[in-house]
Amino acid sequence: MSFEDYRGVWVYIEVKEGQVAPVSLELLGAGRRLADKRRTELAGVVIGEGVKPLAETVFAYGADTLYVYDDPIYKHYRTEPYMKALLACTQKYKPEIILYGATSTGKDLASAVATDLPTGLTADSTMLDVEEDTGLLLASRPAFGGNIMATILCKKYRPQMATVRPKVMKALFPEPGRTGTLVEESIPLQEEEVRTKVLEIVRETARRVRIDEADIVVAGGKGMGGPAGFQLIHKLAEVLGAAVGASRDVVEAGWIGHHHQVGQTGVTVTPKIYFAVGISGAIQHIVGMQNSGLIIAINKDPNAAIFQNCHYGIVGDAFEILPLLIEEYTTALG
Ligand code: FAD
């Protein structure tokens, strides 16, 4: 394997409801920085049906090139066809670096591609840098229970691949009218060859604010006592139009589903306001919410670690404080 053959930084462009997913825009910002440092080009790869028009957005957010696989066979995400397309593109153009969002699709695709390419994959990166002269990707992520940041290198193989958590990188300010090169690609793949069939898509009907996209998150911990006590978290969130977050212990106790878990092994959130109620403030929780605009902690233990990581701290019983807040906000917000 000659490293000289591998050039350019790629971002896998995830499509969500016909639009470029926010995490892919963030990765174009991060990828642009890496590509500029390395004096190379930034490319996107998009796979889907009717996705060609997304080129405009991808170029506006910093890409020089977009490789497009546009075919009805890619209508819904399925590991096999997407992996085959991306693999073919990678083998043909040999990028030095490929970045994916650490979303369920991104993680699934990246790990499938990594199994077929002789290379590694750094999962859930929160910081990225590149060595200007060698092109070595420095992908950092929390390790050992969040107590250290580990920088992971892939010294012997190319391309270097990383999944990156949503909301940790910054998208560039879009430049409307910025253009790039559109490269249409295809692989000989028939529907009969694909083992997975999408029979039906069942959408969750409950109105739920996505935790990683919400402006306000109300998160509850073990201090809420049980599923019944945790209802106060839902109530405050409802009044504020907020998403509900939780500590891992709450998720493990089965009070709420895993996609509400904030932290190292959950979701990273950066809302404008984060309420941490009955949460002790373990480092594994803090790494998932510390970049929130305003953190308000409620805990009955004045020595709880959460008070070291908040802007406003209320020492008291959540069962007395939450009803007051709910009443106050209900009146104020009408
Ligand atoms: P506790 O630590 O039990 O804290 C409960 C808090 O509630 C206490 O501070 C208490 O004073 C307060 N309290 C009790 N009653 C009241 C009341 N009536 N009113 C107000 N306050 C009250 N954790 C995560 O959250 N996210 C992760 O992603 C995550 N990943 C992990 C990964 C690894 C590898 C490991 C080892 C751990 C991970 N954890 C994670 C677990 C983490 O270490 C903590 O155990 C967890 O965050 C604690 O949850 P908690 O704060 O809800 O519970």
From TrEMBL:
Binds 1 FAD per dimer. CDD domains: ETF_alpha. It comes from the Bacteria. This is Subunit alpha of electron transfer flavoprotein. Residues 9-198 form the Electron transfer flavoprotein alpha/beta-subunit N-terminal domain. It holds the Pfam family ETF_alpha. The lineage of its organism: Bacteria, Bacillati, Bacillota, Bacilli, Bacillales. FAD binds at residues 247-248, 261-265, 278-285, 299. It comes from Paenibacillus naphthalenovorans. Belongs to the ETF alpha-subunit/FixB family. The keyword Membrane does not apply. Keywords: FAD, Flavoprotein. PANTHER family: ELECTRON TRANSFER FLAVOPROTEIN ALPHA, ELECTRON TRANSFER FLAVOPROTEIN SUBUNIT ALPHA, MITOCHONDRIAL.
